[in-house]
Write a structure and sequence with these properties.
15 helices; mainly alpha; 2 strands; 294 residues; 2% strand; globular
């Protein structure tokens, strides 16, 4: 079990003042008295070994399909350790050698969404879906792209389709709620409560839904988020999810500065492969730009 410790965040360490440099410290809303931290995720040693092995294999005589698969695998490894540009280069190379790699298109779509290059993102996701209409995550990721591109009706359609495939998945429920909330907050809340009835109450993600339905307060959620970790669960992964969705929750309440703190905490986990880590940086960029434009 990884070490857990509670700390009080004082001053501007995790506050927006470091970003804007224009507001007084006293104007900031602080986080709750205690938050949970974990040691940031470190790249697994086996990733380094596999990257070295792939580099060696790429020097060998290979078919185009084999070379494409290797570039895709290396791109996925680069992505997992946060080397986005190298990952994007390898996904592009992979598709040059094997243009039927739906997963490579899906990864490229995610990366273009993070860059807010939405036209390229849609092109990539559409290609992934054309190659594999049952792709497990392309509809989710296209829905998220549409959410950040303010195409909330289209986002809602993709996320509804994604939820239909696994109606007991709390994360699918949450993302659909976020899209619906942009269109009609009251109807979104009703839909969330209905969808929550189909969820497994023992699933950690159900706690996030409970926060959004108002069944849990922020403090109660913070107290529960480290309980009952499964054998395959990592504390860093759970905290990455918890802090991102707390950030979105605070946004909806109009507490932008607290949202900033939670998005930063999500980023501090270094769980690069999680949706929540990917878009915490997008959220921070948008808040910063919004405040600086005032």
């Amino acid at each position: 079990m990884q070490e857990r410790r509670s700390v009080r965040f004082i001053g501007a360490l995790l506050l927006l003042g470091a970003m804007t440099g224009c507001a007084s410290q006293s104007s900031f809303n602080q986080l709750p008295d205690t938050v949970v931290l974990a040691e940031p995720e470190r790249a697994e040693f086996r990733y380094e070994i596999e990257l070295a092995r792939i580099a060696q294999m790429l020097r060998e005589d290979l078919t185009e399909e084999q070379r494409g698969e290797l570039y895709y695998r290396r791109g996925a490894l680069y992505d997992a350790v946060g080397l986005r540009t190298l990952a994007r280069m390898d996904f592009t190379r992979a598709l040059e050698y094997n243009p039927r790699l739906a997963d490579a298109y899906n990864f490229l779509g995610i990366q273009y969404t993070q860059l807010e290059e939405f036209d390229y993102a849609y092109e990539a996701f559409d290609s992934a879906i054309e190659l594999n209409p049952e792709h497990r995550y392309a509809y989710l990721n296209r829905g998220i792209a549409e959410y950040y591109d303010a195409r909330t009706k289209l986002s809602q359609e993709d996320l509804e389709y994604h939820l239909e495939k696994e109606p007991d998945d709390p994360y699918r429920v949450i993302w659909l709620f976020l899209a619906e909330h942009e269109n009609d907050a009251t109807l979104a809340q009703k839909s969330l409560e209905q969808n929550a009835e189909k969820l497994d109450k023992s699933d950690w993600g159900y706690q996030i839904v409970q926060l959004y339905t108002g069944k849990l307060s922020e403090e109660e959620f913070l107290q529960r988020m480290t309980r009952n970790l499964g054998e395959s669960e990592k504390l860093t992964e759970r905290l990455c999810e918890a802090y991102f969705y707390l950030g979105k929750y605070m946004q909806m309440k109009g507490e932008q500065l607290q949202a900033v703190n939670y998005f930063k905490l999500a980023l501090m986990t270094n769980v690069y492969g999680f949706v929540e880590h990917r878009y915490a940086s997008v959220e921070l960029t948008r808040i910063r730009e919004s405040l600086l434009s005032r």
